[in-house]
Design a protein that fits this description.
- The complex is a heterodimer.
- Chain A is built from three helices and five strands; from the N terminus they run ββαβββαα.
- By secondary structure, chain A is an alpha+beta fold.
- Chain A has a five-stranded antiparallel beta sheet with strand order 2-1-5-4-3, with helices on both faces.
- In chain A, a hairpin with a 5-residue loop joins strand 4 and strand 5.
- Chain A is globular.
- Helix content of chain B is about 50%, strand content about 0%.
- In chain B, the strands form three sheets. Chain B has a two-stranded antiparallel sheet. A two-stranded antiparallel ribbon of chain B has the order 3-4. A two-stranded antiparallel ribbon of chain B has the order 5-6.
- In chain B, helix 25 runs antiparallel to helix 34 and helix 31 runs antiparallel to helix 33.
- The longest helix of chain B is centred in the C-terminal third of the chain and has 46 residues.
- Chain B is flat.
- The relative contact order of chain B is 0.06.
- The chains are: A alpha+beta, B mainly alpha.
- At the A-B interface, helix 2 and helix 3 of A face helix 15, helix 16 and helix 20 of B.
- Chain A: Keywords: Cytoplasm, Endoplasmic reticulum, ER-Golgi transport, Golgi apparatus, Transport.
- Chain A: It holds the Pfam family Sedlin_N.
- Chain A: Belongs to the TRAPP small subunits family. Sedlin subfamily.
Chain lengths: ~140, ~800
């Protein structure tokens, strides 16, 4: 089970959301939305002066009995949220980090595309492929 | 069989095929019957089919289980793509098209030449039975159907365009049967799945004037759009010419020149491109045109077109933004937001193709890849990423940016095999993070790089066993290089131990403490043997000890077990080797007082030799073969040494103290009897040496402790002499004991072993003494300095 979402500020609406098991998607949407609060909390906790030193990877936002939520925020306040199944114990922190890194890289690639307007929903095939492959790896 | 990863479409398709073939619903498919027909339908040569069957394990099993079937299907796809059949290619080849199975119909047979005869009999059986690859069959625009053969054939009949060569079909499949590329009406295939290409493309029914609709059919790079000739051969068919006419109007005015030129050169281009199976190749005229366009935006051919300008330019083509965005993603190879000449040409070409109704590929086709090596734009090269599934190896690309035909027709097998690595490249953008990712990705890709580093020898009983084996082997074969150091000791006269600056005897290398300079007299030998041992350990771990750890800076070592093992080992060669393991090394009697009596007690008790170890000199003059006479030595040692030991026990609390005088005594003795130690069983030596020392277990260690614990006040010089005396005594006493050497081979081996033990012990002693000497000298120097400081005026 893997859901990844990218949300952009300030409205925090999702630019991209993809989940592997397509059922119960709404539940994941809800989870992601609620976890955005946690992300904001973590960001604000850092303080303004530490913005540059702030690490992009936020780590486990909060775990529930079913799944865990991981967060990642870029310097431009674009948030990446990933929900993984708790039963997927094989996923280590490093792997989550690498996945976020890949997401971030792909996101910057999209940004480089002049035809992409920031704030649009992400409709890049390359991005889709990357996310798909990532999810296949996990599941 | 390795695990198989299938995409969704593949999964579905394979499942359908399996159900189709699994007529009896037994979840396994016999090798004959429908499976064979299916494979024949794949239009692969028979030997390829046999290879596939073998690879997937069906021949082994005798039938196709589900997994074998899936593997076979994937291999069929691999083969059809022209890639060599390998097990690795199952998972490494990404974006493999679904395997194509030609469904033969009578009409088709009549229309195509090289068809499989076997299927001629079963045309009907295939009709609509073989589950077509999902979404592949597109009849007409808007009428997407996973449909039957009839539809396909009908559409085939409608096809009027010249057969299009699709690259992956060219290699193993019969060339002309499937070169039907059906140009999709650009808006027509709404339901086209995102999966791989379809072998059965609905023929381009009617001209779809570049009405690129929102349904952006995903088209993998393997099912590229039409053959190059078709791009310009629109004139062949009325619809296409209509397209052409529309094309310039829809794009830009400048394109009229191109279209005119292209129309006129249709035949030439067809001839040219017929040799290639690459529909994405840019012809010379096209290229020239693109270059001219590039110049209008950016006069410098080596410069970049910034993203905004490119956006403006391509927006004029009236393609939807989504498609333009995709084109950009494909063509901006280095993801830098700007287009180089090559990238621009690729983008332009894609735009043109799209305008003509060809779907955009998922990945950049090879021929459109920008030349990766550009010596002028090194930054660009360094940031190669992109969606290229098979990025051509940079070395193969011509370095210049001249508008030459970018013939990057890399052999697919190469690319595919390296695609795994390249794939990882593509996942990275040109951010600084790529560097780190690069390393981490490359490392696992090369599992052969086994970093061999010296492994510290574990002081375990098994080690003793190994040592035993070593000694045994060396005993049996002196020339045995695998136990080099063990071979050496017997050869080296024991006097060397005294003179050499060995830290530890080479015999201890087996224990892992040998340093390369164990014998100064034979440094090269030792070094070579050490290295040999190191290397050897990598190869035959069962035989040799692991490579010795790096030479320790100090001969002392915190673990006494090595010495114990040595001693115990040397003690028991006379006995069975098993016995060695059975006897754990004697606990180094650190606390001298407590241990003072210990060895004494031990000696009479344990005649085996442990006590001999403990009683041997600190430098571990190994017991010589005469263990039989050990008892004599024991008694001798006890008698001779006890007094010294007891004295020492009282004075010093450390083992070393006791050992020191005994060591020195034994060393002296040893020194005297150098030459006679060689093949004789110097059991006397160890035992005599043992006399002087109670706990020989960790000879160096206690010595070191003393060295460290005490300051310069300690009369180390005395110890040195004492030690030497001990050794000399030990050596001297050796020959006095009758040998049983020549009796039999075993005795000889035992004696050799014992000699080696003695060697090791002596070498260790030597190293200890050397160390002490150094310390003493240092102390002396410091004292002298202090003295001079205290007497400043003496020098005036």
């Amino acid at each position: 089970v893997l859901v990844s979402v990218i949300c952009s500020p300030p409205q925090n609406y999702p630019l991209y959301i993809r989940s592997v098991p397509t059922e119960n998607e709404l539940k994941f949407h809800y989870t992601v939305h609620t976890s955005l609060d946690v992300v904001d909390e973590k960001i604000s906790a850092m303080g303004k002066a530490l913005v540059d030193q702030r690490e992009l990877y936020l780590g486990l936002l909060y775990p529930t009995e079913d799944y865990k939520v991981y967060g990642y925020v870029t310097n431009s306040k674009v948030k990446f949220v990933m929900v993984v199944d708790s039963s997927n114990t094989a996923l280590r922190d490093n792997e989550i980090r690498s996945m976020f890194r890949k997401l971030h890289n792909s996101y910057t690639d999209i940004m480089c595309n002049p035809f992409y307007n920031p704030g649009d929903r992400i409709q890049s095939r390359a991005f889709d492929n990357m996310v798909n492959s990532m999810m296949m790896q996990v599941c | 069989m390795e695990g198989l990863t299938l995409s969704e479409a593949e999964q579905r398709y394979y499942c359908d095929l399996f159900s189709y073939c699994d007529t009896e619903s037994t979840k396994k498919v016999a090798s004959n019957g429908r499976v064979l027909e299916l494979f024949r339908a794949a239009q692969l040569p028979n030997d390829v089919v046999m290879q596939i069957m073998e690879l997937c394990g069906a021949t082994r099993l005798g039938y196709f289980g589900r997994s074998q079937f899936y593997i076979a299907l994937k291999l069929v796809a691999v083969a059809q793509s022209g890639l060599p059949l390998r097990v690795e290619s199952l998972n490494t080849v990404k974006d493999l098209p679904l395997p194509r199975f030609v469904v033969s119909k009578n009409e088709q047979e009549s229309r195509h030449t090289a068809l499989y005869s076997s299927d001629a009999d079963n045309p009907a059986s295939y009709s609509g039975v073989i589950p077509p690859p999902p979404g592949r069959i597109q009849v007409k625009k808007g009428s997407v159907s996973h449909d039957t053969v009839q539809q396909r054939t009908s559409t085939d009949q409608q096809e009027s365009t010249s057969p299009v060569v699709s690259p992956q079909q060219s290699p193993p499949t019969s060339p002309h049967t499937w070169r039907k590329h059906n140009r999709h009406p650009s808006g027509g295939n709404n339901e086209r799945p995102l999966a791989g290409p379809g072998p059965f493309w609905a023929p381009f029914s009617e001209a779809q004037p570049g009405s690129s609709t929102s349904s952006d059919p995903i088209w993998s790079g393997h099912s590229p759009p039409p053959h190059q000739e078709n791009w310009v051969s629109f004139a062949d068919t009325p619809p296409t010419s209509a397209l052409l006419a529309m094309h310039p109007a829809s794009v830009q005015d400048q394109t009229t020149v191109r279209t005119v030129a292209s129309a006129t050169t249709t035949n030439e281009i067809r001839r040219q491109s017929s040799s290639y199976d690459d529909p994405w190749k840019i012809t010379d005229e096209q290229r020239q045109y693109y270059v001219n366009q590039f110049k209008t935006i950016q006069p410098d051919l080596n410069g970049f077109i910034p993203g905004s300008a490119a956006k403006e330019f391509f927006t004029k083509s009236k393609l939807p933004i989504l498609e333009l965005s995709h084109i950009w993603e494909l063509s901006d190879f280095d993801k830098d937001g700007a287009l180089t000449l090559d990238e621009f040409c690729a983008a332009f070409h894609l735009v043109v193709a799209r305008k003509n109704g060809y779907d955009l590929p998922e990945k950049l086709p090879e021929s459109l890849m920008p030349k990766l090596i550009d010596l002028e734009d090194s930054t660009e090269v360094g940031e190669q990423t992109g969606e290229v599934g098979y990025s051509s190896s940079p070395a193969e690309a011509p370095p210049s940016k001249s508008p030459s035909m970018p013939s990057l027709n890399q052999t697919w097998p190469e690319l595919n095999q390296s695609s795994e690595q390249w794939e990882t490249f593509s996942e990275r953008s040109s951010s600084s993070q790529t560097l780190t990712q690069f390393d981490s990705n490359i490392a696992p890709a090369d599992p052969d790089t086994a970093i061999v580093h010296p492994v510290p020898i574990r002081m375990t009983p098994s080690k003793i066993h190994m040592q035993e084996m070593e000694l045994k082997r060396t005993g049996s074969d002196h020339a045995n290089p695998t136990s080099p150091l063990l071979v050496k000791p017997p050869d080296l006269p024991e006097e060397n131990k005294m003179s050499s600056s060995v830290k530890f005897t080479p015999g201890n290398t087996v224990n892992g403490y040998s340093s390369s300079d164990s014998y100064t007299s034979d440094p090269e030998q030792i070094g070579s043997t050490v290295t040999r041992q190191r290397s050897h350990s990598g190869t035959s771990p069962d035989n040799t000890a692991p490579p010795p750890p790096p030479p320790r800076p100090h001969p002392s070592h915190s673990r006494s077990s090595s010495l114990d093992m040595n001693r115990s080992f040397s003690v028991t060669p006379g006995q069975q080797q098993a016995g060695v393991v059975a006897y754990p090394p004697a606990v180094p009697p650190r606390p001298q007082p407590s241990q003072g009596a210990g060895p004494h007690v031990h000696r009479p008790v344990d005649a085996e030799g442990l006590i001999a170890h403990t009683s041997t000199s600190p430098q571990q003059i190994p017991e010589q073969p005469n263990f039989a006479d050990f008892s004599q030595f024991e008694a001798f040692a006890v008698s001779g040494v006890n007094k010294e030991e007891e004295d020492e026990i009282e004075t010093h609390s450390e083992v070393l103290q006791v050992e020191k005088p005994s060591d020195s005594a034994s060393s002296l003795r040893v020194a005297k009897a150098d030459g006679r130690v060689e093949d004789k069983a110097p059991a006397n030596v160890p035992t005599s040496a043992a006399k002087g020392t109670t706990p020989l277990a960790p000879p160096p260690k206690p010595i070191r402790r003393r060295l460290k614990s005490e300051d310069e006040l300690r009369p180390e010089a005395e110890e040195h002499t004492q030690k030497t005396g001990v050794i000399a005594a030990v050596l001297a006493s050796q020959p006095s004991i009758p040998r049983s050497v020549g009796k039999d081979k075993k005795a000889i081996q035992a004696s050799i072993r014992r000699n080696k033990e003695t060697n090791t012990v002596l070498a260790r002693l030597n190293s200890e003494l050397q160390q002490q000497l150094k310390d003493v000298l240092e102390e002396r120097i410091s004292l002298e300095v202090q003295l001079e400081q205290l007497r400043p005026f003496s020098h005036l």
